[in-house]
Amino acid sequence: MVYLIWSKSEGRYASMRHACVFGASCSKVDRAYLDAAYEAGALLAGAGVGMVFGGGNTGLMGAAARGVKSRGGEVIGVIPERLNQPGIAFADCDELIVTPDMHSRKAKMESLSFGFLALPGGFGTLEELLEVITLNQLGYLSTPVSILNTNGYYDALLTQLDTCIGQAFTAPACRGIYQAADTPAAAVAWLLRAIPVTLPNKIKDAIKDDKRIRENETKS
Asked: What percent of the chain lies above the pLDDT cut of 70?
């Protein structure tokens, strides 16, 4: 169950698109990451796009939210009860939604968003990013996933994703789910113009491949 506890923009969901932004809550990172997050938020708002995010006041999350507000954009925070403490939630959210746990938090953010922008972040951000890529792969979502690769932060992850595809653990078509960009302008531009890709049916392909392998085992 999701509890709506505070709203200044009731009924506005239908009038504004929202992009979901993932990012670090830590503020100890290099200033370049915070500046890029702020710029990304400002660019979203400048394009008439609101932001859905984890509701945090600190780190890249807070910087992106402030960037959106600097251009008059709408910010919807989604935060679990355990983290909804004084000083943690972004005070200028147009709407703050409190959920019982992390799972329902992610589901709510996904349901409110047309696409996703992943800023640099830690374990939580990585988990969120890989989850929405996987949900697209399995057909639960059909949404663009843009990755802001500030200072090459995601280089190692992008290499690993290419390895998954190169060694046939993932279908090549899945490469179209996400796109990395070095600058906020490029990351936001791709997010806004991306067209959903046609993906193979992972379940049917897995069954077909398993049948072929079993037949070969029998022959040998």
From this structure: 87
